[in-house]
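Risk register update: the risk of archive-format incompatibility is retired. Evidence:
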Amino acid sequence: MILQVHGDIFEWRGPAPFLFVAIDEIQSRDIKAMSQLVSYGWGVIPVTCRLGQTEWKTSLFPKKDRYLIPIKVIVQKAEQVGAGDVVTIEVTIG
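Archived output:
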């Protein structure tokens, strides 16, 4: 499954600040429907993402009725993006 995800980058503070993009509810519902086939535990789903020219491997994290895409620091630097920016990310599941 390949998705085009469009959204705002936002900061979620924990032990350290992390940046994420939330997948919309409709796409998240589609992901949840197939999650049993691709999840390796705790509901996280391994994916490959592409933002601009940068590709990285990560995992989607479930949060309420949506999934979150972590935006690694290396991606932030390579694509010159940060909190508040609106981006489109290609997400490949499976």
